[in-house]
Design a protein that fits this description.
Length: about 200
C-alpha cells in the first residue's frame, strides 16, 4: 500500500506549470508525512500502452487459455489497478491538451479501470494547467472537457474526496494574443500552488 500515488503527465520538464504545482504539493506532503511511501508514474518518460484486443479480452479468457503475451498484458493492467486501489491519496498533475486529457493519461485511465475491480477509496487531487481560460464569460467557456471528465473517472470508481486545482492562462507570454493576461497567469499559478500545499497538508 502506498501513501501517495503520483501520476505525472506533462513532457515539458522544468517548463511545466502542472509539474511546478505538483512539486509544491509533494514538498508539503512529505513534510507532513515523513517516511511516506510515494509511488510515481511519469507518463511522459514511461508511457502506458493503449488498450488493445489482447488486453481487453484477457479479462474474459480463463487464465489457462491465455497466451503468454495476453497474460503479461493482463498482469500489467492488474498492477496499475492495484496501485490505484491501494493508494491512500492519488495525485494527478496534467496539462489540458485540445480541450481534454493528453492521450498518455487516457491510456493509463483505460488500463487501470477494470469494471467491478477498480475501487478508489483514498483522496484524489487533480492538478490541471490550462493554456487559456475556459471559465464562465470567457470566449471558450464550456470547452473544458477535461475537468469534469477526470472528476467523473474517480467518483465513478468510488472516490468521495476529489479536489481539482486549476491554473489558467499558461500560454500568456508565449502566445502573443494572450500577452495581456500575464498578470492573471501569475496570480492563477500562485493560487494553485497555495491550494496544492493546503491540500497536501490537510
Amino acid at each position: 500500500m502506498s501513501d501517495l500515488l503520483h501520476i505525472e503527465v506533462s513532457p515539458q520538464g522544468d517548463h511545466s506549470i502542472s509539474r511546478a504545482i505538483s512539486k509544491e504539493f509533494l514538498e508539503a506532503f512529505n513534510e507532513r508525512n515523513p517516511g511516506a511511501v510515494v509511488v510515481t508514474r511519469d507518463l511522459a518518460t514511461d508511457s502506458i500502452p493503449h488498450l488493445d484486443g489482447q488486453t481487453i479480452f484477457a479479462g474474459f479468457t480463463p487464465e489457462a487459455e491465455r497466451s503468454e503475451t495476453m497474460q503479461a498484458k493482463h498482469e500489467f493492467r492488474l498492477q496499475l489497478m492495484n496501485e490505484v486501489n491501494d493508494a491512500k491519496h492519488i495525485l494527478i498533475s496534467t496539462p489540458m491538451w485540445n480541450f481534454s486529457v493528453p492521450s498518455v493519461l487516457k491510456a493509463w485511465i483505460d488500463q487501470m479501470i477494470i469494471s467491478g475491480a477498480t475501487k478508489v477509496s483514498g483522496k484524489v487531487t487533480i492538478i490541471i494547467s490550462q493554456g487559456g481560460s475556459y471559465a464562465e464569460g470567457a470566449p471558450r467557456a464550456g470547452w473544458d472537457w477535461e475537468t469534469g471528465y477526470l472528476r467523473q473517472v474517480f467518483t465513478s470508481q468510488g472516490a468521495s474526496d476529489v479536489e481539482i486545482i486549476l491554473s489558467e492562462f499558461g500560454l500568456a507570454g508565449i502566445v502573443p494574443a494572450l500577452a495581456r493576461f500575464i498578470d492573471q497567469k501569475n496570480a492563477s499559478i500562485a493560487a494553485a500552488k497555495e491550494a496544492a500545499k493546503a491540500r497536501a497538508a490537510a
